[in-house]
Design a protein that fits this description.
The complex is a heterodimer of chains A (314) and B (262). Chain A is mainly alpha-helical and 314 residues long. Chain A contains 14 helices and 4 strands. In chain A, strand 2 and strand 3 form a beta hairpin. The two termini of chain A are 24 Å apart. Chain B is built from 10 helices and 10 strands. In chain B, 42% of the residues lie in helices and 24% in strands. In chain B, the strands form 2 sheets. Chain B has a 6-stranded mixed sheet with strand order 6-7-8-3-9-10, sandwiched between helices. In chain B, strands 2-1-4-5 form a 4-stranded antiparallel sheet, with helices on one face. In chain B, helix 3 crosses helix 5 (119-138), helix 3 (95-102) packs parallel to helix 6 (154-167) and helix 6 (154-167) runs parallel beside helix 7 (184-199). Chain B has helices spanning 42-49, 72-77, 95-102, 111-116, 119-138, 154-167, 184-199, 211-217, 235-239, 242-261, and strands at 2-13, 16-27, 31-35, 57-62, 65-66, 80-82, 172-176, 203-207, 220-225, 228-233. In chain B, 43% of the residues are buried. The chains are: A mainly alpha (314), B alpha/beta (262). At the A-B interface, helix 7, helix 8, helix 9 and helix 10 of A face helix 2, helix 3, helix 4 and helix 5 of B.
Amino acid sequence: MRTLLATRLLPAIAVAAIVIVLPWFFPSAFYYRIGALVFIFALAVVGLNLLMGFAGQVSLGHAGFLGIGAYSVAIGPTYFGVPSWLSLFAGAVLSGIVAFLVGRPILRLKGHYLAVATLGFGLLVAIVLSNEAGWTGGPDGMTVPKLTLFGWGVRGADAWYWISGTTFVGGFILALNLMESPTGRSLQAIHDSEIAALVLGIDVATKKLTIFIISAMYASVAGSYLALFNGHVTPDVAGFLRSIELVAMVVLGGMGSIVGSLVGAIVLVVLPQVLTVFHEYEQALLGLIVMVFMIFLRRGIVPSVAAILKGWRK
Amino acid sequence: MMILETERLAITFGGVRAIDGVSISIAAGQVFSIIGPNGSGKTTLFNLVSGIYRPNDGSIRLAGETVTGLAPDQLARRGLSRTFQNLQIFSRMTVLENVMVGRHRHERTGVLADLLHWPTVARQNRATREAALAALGRVSLADAADRPAGSLAYGALKRLEIARALASEPKVLLLDEPAAGCNPIETQDIDHVIRSIVQGGITVVLVEHDMRLVMNISDRVHVLASGRTLTEGTPQEVRSNPAVIEAYLGVHGSQEAGRAFD
């Protein structure tokens, strides 16, 4: 029971409390917008962290799945009259299928080779989205119809804050559950030694594929939310920079730390907003701060701070 | 009953026959040791038997069933487990979690149940934890259960690998140099652990350089030299076989040794 509290219940309650309490401190409606963006990105980052931090498989093309999710809620309602929520689910299923087809050949690769292969996948999605202008509006993108739930048209940043916050908490709990299960243990084992995992009877290829599909579906849902929230989508959503941003959030927050996924998303969504006061130096300062974080908290913010606190208690 | 058999097993690496027509038959419940000078193919033989390499020729039978060419995970599910000469620890996990992974082949769940943390998953986690703790107890590591595996001393890591393999409840356990790099006290511990494993009804196949350990503990000893079988017999027979001494020390060395023993 004590371990249950420590590993699953406590972080879940803490994160849910953050989602609920945070708006009390918002000075203006603008902050709901930032909050919603944080939770949307954090959702994708949790999924990517399952793949990278736990199973040890890198993906430099994860924004490709963000793009599939985003364009599903744009194209589905616009051209096929499919309701947005159904298009979101369809997008997640499509992402899962694409991840299955792409993952089977490329997850045999390791390290840098896998990184480059996934990078290629991300570029491919971005190029298809720009070129198929008849469906996607090309590089200028397209308008995304507003989400309607049970006759209620979802409008305003505060509504999206609650929707994305609730979904994030759900995704967070599912991820914690997974790690405390045979599947989760297998994935962590694969990270440290594939050969040892194999001789203990773990079907390494299938496990890798499974987590690749799950993480693709997380990204897809996040992409759908992002598109619905912004009301507009361009191929940039699937671009290389977006993929790198997701990876940076995982590493900055802490590989293999589900709580770290939220922290990484907070830092990289909020910091650029804060730094706008420095005008032209914004990007340079952002880069500098990220470097300093990585130099002093090299295992990522959450694991490093946890280790420091543990050291103090002793 | 023969639990593990190979027949004229062979594998070639770039023209070198690393294992060349090796046939062994291991009876259930024995400690069966494979010895030989460096480079004689002991670890290669282990890698063939555990499915890491595919043989170019010959066959392997596990408990009477032909398993030639099966992948390591398929063999593991049929009851074959092993440890590694160079440790393969899950260093980011705790000691207990390492051994819990060893229970994998006895766990039954699906990804959906795992994501939703079905009650069956919780129940199974408890059972897995109990079994893993029991396996740790068998190698006297129960006290270290919650420590990060990476923080253990070398000798303890050797025993952790054995516990992890034991947790999978294999029929046959391949131990690749369990005493390598261990001090005499740690080697003594390994000796006790192996004896208790065999008492538990598991067949142990041992590759080991520590001759005292091998001669003490083995029922049968199989000697390899340059990828071929040199001889096989009881420890007593092997020890007094001049060909074995020659393989280890060379012709000149064995004459020297002979003089020294006179």
